[in-house]
Structure formats: C-alpha cells, structure tokens
Specification:
Blueprint: E1 6-9, H1 10-13, E2 14-18, E3 31-34, E4 41-43, E5 48-56, E6 72-80, E7 84-89, H2 97-106, H3 108-111, H4 126-130, E8 133-136, H5 139-176, E9 186-188, E10 211-214, E11 224-225, E12 229-231, H6 235-240, E13 244-245, E14 248-253, E15 262-266, E16 269-271, E17 275-280, H7 283-294, H8 296-306, H9 316-320, E18 323-325, H10 329-368, H11 379-383
Parallel strand pairs: 3-6, 10-16, 11-15
Antiparallel strand pairs: 1-8, 2-7, 3-4, 5-6, 5-7, 9-18, 10-12, 13-16, 14-15, 14-17
Helix pairs in contact: 5-7, 5-10, 7-10
Protein name: Type I restriction modification DNA specificity domain-containing protein
InterPro entries: Restrct_endonuc_typeI_TRD, Restrct_endonuc_typeI_TRD_sf, Type-I_RS_S_subunit
Organism: Gryllotalpicola daejeonensis
Length: about 375
C-alpha cells in the first residue's frame, strides 16, 4: 500500500441504516426508492437524506447461492427497500461516498459476497458490512479517482446512446420496407429459394471432423451475420442432407424459446431442423430479406402462427406461405447498402462500449488498489 493510504473498517467511518420500505407495498411518489433492481422505484415518503452506498442484504440469485448483481449509489432525499442497507460516511471532508461506492461495487464479490451466510436463504448482515475493511487514499486522490471514472462513464453512456440510435434506425428501416406501392412487390417465402439443395449437389471438401453447422444458438441476434460452428457428421450424412446452405442465406429460428430470431450466412453449411432458411443470390438481397423478417410486422405475424404454447413452433409449410416485401432489384440493393451502413455504425458503437467497459474495470482495479497513482496535476482539470 502506498504512503498516505490506510485500511479502515466501514464501522469506523460510516453509519449503516437498514431500509424500512417493503418494495411491493411502497406508495409511489416523488422520492426515489432504492431497490435491488437496476432502476429505482418511487416512494411517497423518504427515509434518508444526503449520500449513501446501498448494499442489498439478500442474494441476487437465491437458492443457496451467494451473489450480488449490483451496489447502488443514492443521493438527495430517498427511501430504501427493507432488504437493503444504506451506508453513509460520517465525515465527507475525509471520505468520499462516491469513492466508497466504487470500492464496494467493483470489489463486491471479495468484500461483500464472501461474507454472505445461509443455505436456502443467503443473506448479508449489517455487522458483516460493518466489518468490511476498505483501503482509502487521501481525500484528494479519492476525488481524482471518482472524477476519472465518471469521465469514462460519460463516454460509455455516449457510445451506448449511439448504439441505441443505430438500433432504432435499423428497426425503423425494417418496418418501412412494408410500405410497398403495389401488390406485385409482395412475395411469399416459398416463392424464394428455400435453401434446400438436392443430395446430388454436394458441398466440396467436407470431412467427418469438420462440417460447418448452424444451430439456433448461433442465430443469437436479429440481423446478425451468423458464424457456423463445426460438428462431427459422417461424410455420407453431410452430403445427403437437404438442409444445406449455399451462397447468401437468411435463417430464422422457428421452434423454441428463440423463435423469430434472424441471421444471415455466407458460404456452405448445414443447419439445424429448428431453423428455416432461404438462400439468395446476392449479399444485399440477404440483408434486405433479413431486415424485413426482423421487422415488428413480420415478427408479430410469425409468432401469431406459432401460438401461445410452451414450445412454440411454425412449420415449414406455414412459414413458407408467409409474405415479405420484395421490391425491384435496384430498391433491394439501395436498402441493403443503407442497412449495412447502419449495422456498421451499430457494431462500431458496440465495440466502443465493450472497450470502454473493459477500460473502466482495469482502471478501477489499478486505482482502487493503489497500483496506479493519478498525478496531482489532474486537480487542475477538476477545477476546470
């Protein structure tokens, strides 16, 4: 531990107050109600005022397993659910509540989850929280760390907003595809190539140890390029399969929990019987059709055919007669190009969010453990 740092028990610099509001019985009102979920509820009354780190007292998963999904920070006037404890620092001139929140949140498994007790109902006691030891730098460094992480959080939120905007644009485009001027621009999926190749048309260079194979789990997100995995299948079975993709294909899960999920695939592959597929001639055609099949309009119709059952299923014949917009070649190319541009923006935003979250975790580990020191010159930025 660096010079100037000290280890202090929570009980020695904080007060701990158990929440008093039953979540399900809370009367909605103007005050935030801290609950175990990601979003706060509301309350007609408030219990505490100021700043607090709010620690759940019960396991997030239950069933004899100790875990905490999150530790909240709250400020102002707020109520606290009766399964949460509010930890408040006694001297804000020496201790930062936001810094304490970073510590207890980032190291919650080591500092809090490890202290949970019980078999069927795993819980955390107030005394266990009070006994937690926290490494604290001088208040000036606490504030620098808090500010640095807040800047990263702002960047994450900005990238997440770009991701939301790109996602909304893709949904809007997919829905707009159904605005076709004439009936001649509507086709059924059965009118398009179904993706089944004759047994005599065998994909080349497949071996029993390396057959490209697609399962519903591979079609994990709407409009996503699907990567096939390898599966051991006998050469004869692979060559005889009618569930073979060639060129550009659109796949849709038509059985089970992920019914409706859509993906595109390029190349040769076998696919699972829970998937229906259409093979097309060009990449933009595949992108266009995948977007149409991802639209709220098509998804609603598909799930209507599946019915409300524990194992929803749309048969291949029922799926094949479903209609999709199919305008002229130039229109499909134009829309396909626009969709790929928006997907590129979405992927870029997702990559940025992932990278920033990884950076945040690395910074927290380095700064909260004292392995990295933020120079005093950073204070000038805080003043600015």
């Amino acid at each position: 531990m660096r010079e100037g740092w000290m280890t202090v028990r929570v009980r020695d610099f904080c007060t701990i107050t158990k929440g008093t509001t039953p979540t399900l019985k809370a009367v909605p009102g103007p005050y935030p109600l801290v609950v175990t979920g990601e979003e706060f509820a509301s309350s007609a009354d408030y219990q505490l005022e100021g700043e607090a780190v709010c620690v759940p007292l019960v396991s997030s998963t239950g069933h004899g397993h100790a875990s905490l999904k999150r530790v909240h920070y709250a400020s102002g006037k707020f109520a606290v659910a009766n399964i949460i404890a509010a930890v408040q620092v006694k001297d804000s001139a020496r201790y930062s509540t936001k810094y304490l929140h970073l510590v207890l949140s980032h190291f919650r498994n080591e500092l809090l989850v490890s202290r949970m007790k019980g078999t069927a109902n795993v819980s955390l006691s107030i005394s266990a929280i009070a006994d937690v030891e926290v490494a604290l730098p001088p208040i000036s460094e606490q504030r620098r760390i808090v500010d640095l992480i807040a800047a990263v959080d702002d960047a994450i939120e900005a990238a997440a907003e770009e991701r939301r905007a790109a996602t909304e644009s893709l949904v809007a485009i997919s829905e707009s595809l159904w605005d076709v001027p004439e009936r001649a621009q509507i086709r059924t999926l059965g009118d398009l190539f179904t993706g089944e190749t004759p047994a005599s048309s065998n994909p080349a260079n497949w071996t029993p140890e390396d057959v490209p194979f697609i399962t519903p789990g591979d079609v994990d997100r709407l409009g996503t390029e699907v990567q096939s995995t390898s599966r051991k299948v006998s050469t004869s079975a692979a060559k005889a399969s009618k569930r073979t993709l060639r060129g550009h294909a659109v796949l849709q899960v038509c059985i089970g929990a992920t019914i409706g999920k859509v993906g595109t695939h390029h190349g040769e592959a076998l696919y699972n019987q829970q998937i229906n597929a259409v093979s097309l001639g060009t990449r933009f055609d595949a992108v266009f059709l995948a977007s149409a099949m991802s639209s709220p309009t098509f998804q609603s119709r598909l799930k209507g055919r599946a019915g409300k059952t524990t194992m929803p299923i749309v048969s291949k014949s029922a799926w094949g007669v479903m209609e999709v917009p199919w305008p002229g070649h130039e229109r499909r190319n134009s829309v396909g190009s626009s969709l790929e541009s928006h997907k590129s923006m979405l992927q870029s935003a997702e990559t940025t969010v992932s990278a920033l979250r990884a950076l945040r975790a690395e910074l927290l580990t380095a700064c909260l453990s004292g392995d990295h020191e933020i120079p005093a010159s950073y204070d000038a930025l805080l003043e600015a």
